[in-house]
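Weekly structure sync, notes
Attendees: PL (lead), two postdocs, one rotation student
Agenda item 3: pending single-chain targets
PL asked that the sequence for the first pending target be pasted directly into the notes so everyone works from the same version. It is reproduced below exactly as submitted, 306 residues in total.
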Amino acid sequence: MPTTTTAAVDDAFIYIMVFCFLLFAAIIFFTVFFAVRYRRSRNPNPADISGNPLLEGAAIGVMLLLVLPMFIYGLTGFKFLRTAPAGSMNVAVTARQWSWLFTYENGKKSTDLVVPQGRDIALTMVSTDVIHGFFAPAYRIKQDVVPGMKTRAWFKAASLGASDILCTQYCGLQHSKMLSMIYVILPADFDSWYAGQEVEIEGLLSRKGMSEGEGLLRQNGCTDCHSLDGTRRVGPTFKGLFGSGGRVRTAGKERPIVVNAAYIVKSIVNPSADVRVGYEDIMPSGRGLYTDLQLHEISEFIATLK
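Predicted structure, written out during the meeting:
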């Protein structure tokens, strides 16, 4: 019986590959054998071969005996993959265009999944907009994340290090950038990180010295579409945005605006209301994602980006 999701999938894959190789070898062998045994020089007059119920029944029985163990082995592995062990650490996963958010039992949130080495990690996943696909290739887990329902997966954080998280369902224009990481760290370091202390984790973005507004923007994937340094992306850059003028499309008509706190809040809560000219109406709504205080913090941070 496997002890990790990686072993469960790898063992089933090896089993199927060995079976397929042996079956392929048998097919090649009998193809060559019959081609030689019944070649024209030895059998110049072809003969009709009638059905043989006994032989046909035996062939069906042999195929069943060969395939049934594969089915049972696969089913056992599937049940193992679907059932998180008792005592697993629970993490809630929220998928939205185009970011992942991980929420821990103490309320701590992170855009990357940080876990202690040696623990079983149970993931409960929801989507706020469209269908996404949670895929962690290093742990051989893939699970669709569907709006309106909860889906689940789990893995064992056996080895220290970092590995990728990808989205496998095309979920919109920035689908290819819906990336995150799993960081497996020492249990003592995790306890410190979990308690809110600063822990140096190679590759993990530190929020030390980061304002609350910037942290919220990064946490919810806003900086994937809106740069902080003036770089043009699928959405307007935040640098120099506050106080600037521009034109938007409102109910199909263009009109001039000046970016202020009210405009920023409205653009987060109802982004389709005023679409910036030159950009597409693809931003997902942030309604319900932030409190009024958090919206104020975001606006204040954007105002500092001159």
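Discussion points:
- Residues 5-82 form a domain with the Helix Hairpins fold (CATH 1.10.287).
- Residues 27 and 33 are 10 Å apart (CA to CA).
Action: rotation student to compare against the earlier draft before next sync.
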